[in-house]
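RECORD TYPE: inverse folding
INPUT: structure tokens
STRUCTURE:
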């Protein structure tokens, strides 16, 4: 009997915020997304705003405001857009000023820049020095035939930056078997279920071959919804303990290792 109402709240490690070029979302800003999270039983999201990822004049105001107003509900990715320029110092300053930041977000395909390009080096170096989380969009071959974030590029960065925690966004869709092999080899690599959870049997395969402790839950909310992807995990033929690792505990572990634990979890540990 499948329990579609787990006795814990969910943490989603791959979401977005804001309105994006061709898409309309009912829930797109901090207030409406938190309302949506409450409806579904999601405690916390790790998120990057479309403005920071895509706009030429990003000022990070939307994410900073969201993290301040919902400190345990919304944790932010610092979006690294190599086309706009950035520095290690700007990343450090942002993390010092905003305890809500949880990691860095890269979008190589969209920025048409190889993950192994030297323009990403300062960000990777910063993450490696701090043992920080990096979520990168990863995909086998894109619609335009490019492969800016394919499995070979992922292997390249994991060999070079062994201290980062690296979430392979979408688990390198089109090359999921290669992503599974990477996660088997690199214990600091995570398989992300965002969009990929719809592939029949993929969750069972990841858990069987790598272990649930290296699989993270992600949805791309608001571009996609929580419910279908949540159902894919809850309905998967894996143990309840493995489901909890995927839907909550692995994200908590990442927060703990980043020194950025949720306040209510910290209080529970000290009680
Ligand atoms: Zn995404």
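DESIGNED SEQUENCE:
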């Amino acid at each position: 009997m499948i329990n579609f109402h787990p006795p814990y709240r969910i943490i989603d490690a791959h979401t977005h915020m804001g309105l994006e070029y061709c898409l309309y979302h009912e829930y797109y800003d901090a207030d409406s997304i938190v309302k949506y999270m409450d409806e579904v039983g999601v405690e916390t999201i790790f998120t990057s705003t479309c403005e920071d990822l895509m706009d030429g004049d990003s000022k990070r105001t939307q994410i900073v405001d969201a993290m301040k107003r919902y400190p345990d509900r919304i944790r932010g990715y610092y979006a690294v857009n190599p086309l706009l320029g950035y520095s290690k110092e700007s990343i450090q300053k942002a993390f010092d000023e905003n305890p809500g930041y949880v990691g860095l977000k890269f979008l190589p395909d969209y920025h048409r820049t190889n993950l192994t390009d030297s323009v990403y080096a300062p960000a990777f170096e910063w993450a490696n020095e701090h043992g920080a989380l990096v979520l990168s969009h990863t995909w086998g071959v894109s619609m335009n035939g490019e492969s800016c974030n394919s499995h070979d590029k992922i292997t390249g960065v994991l060999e070079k930056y062994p201290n980062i925690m690296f979430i392979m966004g979408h688990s390198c869709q089109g090359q999921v078997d290669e992503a599974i092999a990477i996660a088997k080899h690199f214990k600091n690599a995570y398989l992300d279920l965002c969009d990929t959870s719809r592939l029949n049997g993929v969750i069972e395969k990841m858990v069987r071959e790598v272990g649930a402790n290296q699989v993270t839950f992600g949805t791309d909310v608001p571009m996609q919804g929580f419910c279908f992807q949540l159902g894919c995990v809850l309905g998967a033929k894996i143990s309840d303990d493995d489901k909890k690792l995927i839907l909550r505990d692995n994200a908590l572990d990442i927060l703990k290792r980043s020194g950025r634990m949720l306040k209510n979890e910290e209080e529970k540990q000290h009680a």
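NOTES: The chain has a mean pLDDT of 93.
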